[in-house]
Amino acid sequence: MKLITIKEAIDFVKKDVKPIGIEKVLISDAYGRVLAENLKSGSDHPEVDVSAVDGYAVKAGDIADAAEKNYIKLVLADTIKAGIEPGTTLRHGGTVLVFTGAPVPEGTDAVVMREDIQVDGKEIIFKKPIGSGKNIRFVGEDFRKDEIVVSKGTTIGAAEIGMAAEINRSYLFVYRTPVVSIIPTGDELLELGDTSPGRFAIRDSNSYTLIGLVKQAGAKFSVCRRLKDDPIATAETIKAELDRSDIVITTGGVSAGDYDFVKKVVPEIGVDVIFHGVLQKPGKPILFGKYKNNRYLFGLPGFPVSSTVGFLLYAYPLIRALAGFSDKELPRVKATLKEEFHRKKGKREELVRVKVDYNIENGFTVKPDTKKQGSGILTGMVGDTALMDVPIGVTDIKKGAEVIIILIKPISSFGQLS
Ligand code: AMP
Ligand code: MG
């Protein structure tokens, strides 16, 4: 097994990856998807000059000399509601009452807010001047006809959905969401609720952790097919799922054990093994392969923390790239280490589980939980956890040092965020 570095492995995974396809969705279903087209407007917005306030359209010059003691009266010529075509042109000496969003009559320089005038029968009293252009939303100031209002590759949020509606689009072309099949392997695995084999069996938690991770990455979970350590069933099932899904993720069966059949059968079913074994801790025996028609296989190790870290480092960026997201890898940020860190060997890059805190003054601060670093210790991943990236060759990091952490959970899910 030739081991490569994490960086090399990530580069292999991301190499030549393109979004897998395009589909049409209603704008109400588009939230969180990635736009696969440039959104262009068919008209200017606003389409005409409109009032930004409830007030009186004026020619600025008519009230240029207005003052508290030297007020100026203009004759009310018309009233225009929003959505109505103006029937009048504004003439010198006249004013028109316009409501917010109403088109201003031709000849208008500015709109004086209702709060700033007094009404005297059919005449309106102005006691101060107004700058030209005030309180008018000019034609095209938001966007012009044929302007790109949302670019291809943008992740669609609320504002982008609103923009689509503003330009009268009821559907959008977005990148297709990758579909993922999960295949946990191992004779020892026990389904939820099953208690028959007693204390020696191991509850299959990986399937469920992975369903969560698939959702976090923005992919679709297709199916979970739990297998015994049986080479024939393993080969057949992986192949069948590769023929149906974009990504197949197995757990277990990739290390050096006699019953580790995943790594043995994978080359036989037409998977091109790109790497098997990365200089990382946890998750060293990870396998990555490519299958025909842009299908991908991750053979994650069985231990729950190893499989989770393997997913986050490699499957996550692959899913993001296939789904068209511009952000592919999980965010890496600087943090301050609150306690010194020591490890015996520095042969592998280590992803140390740390508890993370954040506040405005100190930014991110982290503390490794030394007792919770085992590959099978899933409690080390629960809660406000991040992964501290300890490079190859580094065995000691001083308290107070700046470290790099990978934010493996959305920031909004941190309980301690303050
Ligand atoms: P393996 O990589 O197949 O040698 O598995 C290593 C260890 O990971 C096993 O001995 C189990 O303790 C654990 N394990 C394997 N599969 C799962 C699973 N689906 N859920 C939870 N733990 C697992
Ligand atoms: Mg196994």
What does this protein structure show overall?
This protein has 418 residues and is an alpha/beta fold. Helix content is 16%, strand content 30%. It is built from six helices and 28 strands. Strand 8 and strand 9 (123-126) form a beta hairpin. The longest helix has 19 residues, at 304-322. The two termini are 46 Å apart. Magnesium ion binds at residues 186, 229, 252-253, 259, 302.
Give the CATH architecture of the largest domain: 3-Layer(aba) Sandwich
- Associated small molecules: adenosine monophosphate, magnesium ion
Helicity, as a percent range: 10-25%
Strand arrangement within the widest β-sheet reads 7-4-6-5-9-8
Structural class: alpha/beta
Can you tell me the CATH class of the largest domain?
Answer: Alpha Beta
Uncertain segments are none
Number of domains: 4
CATH superfamily of the largest domain: MoaB/Mog-like domain
Q: What overall form do the CA principal axes indicate? A: elongated
Distance between the termini: 46 Å
How does the major sheet shape up? 6 strands, mixed
Proportion of beta-strand residues? 25-35%
Radius of gyration: 31 Å
* Total of helices: 6
What's the CATH topology name of the largest domain?
Molybdenum Cofactor Biosythetic Enzyme, Chain A
Quantity of strands, as a count: 28
Arithmetic mean pLDDT: 96
